[in-house]
Amino acid sequence: MLLFVFFxxxxxxxxxxxxxxxxxxxxxxxxxxxxxxxxAVHFRIAQIFEYEELVPVFRVLLYPYIVMVMCVGxxxxxxxxxxxxxxxxxKACRYDLTDLKQEVLDGDPCPECGATLxxxxxxxxxxxxxxxxxxxxKLAPEPVAGLTLGLAAHEPDEAADDQHEHxxxxxxxxxxxxxxxxxxxxxxxxxxxxx
Length: 195
Ligand SMILES: [Zn+2]
What we know:
Elements: H1 2-17, H2 22-48, H3 55-77, H4 101-105, H5 117-120, H6 123-139, H7 145-181, H8 188-194
The protein binds zinc ion (ZN).
């Protein structure tokens, strides 16, 4: 039964990846076709093994499932592609190069993926640049915001700990004296309480 979940995710992934293109629609149509075939083949098997009267029990689940796969798939396939917005973009990674226009036109590489204009112009160059970017992000992952926050918060924590210890030491001082010398050791407020 988990297979149906994986199948749906697979179809939706295809629909999303190929959204607004023929590929996405083809993935969705292919997925729905497979499901309809499963339905038909299952009915045929039921006929052979003579349990047709139980098939509606299966279909009660299968038909809503097919409709769900179709609806979510249609939604995903119509999602917009995030088109590059700037004046000039890296053809390999879509990085906005508007501010670096002159440098890039002079032959500098894209700061995001390292592809030059000439490299990004060819399919092979784009693939290479994408691979390089992937490898680089694996080697040196972007610092995680939570982690740096945690590190930054650690130092004041230590300072606070020191302060706390210091305060505790001074707090304990009069107490120790009090226990050592009895009522005479208490400060004015404590003496007042007893009186
Ligand atoms: Zn790039």
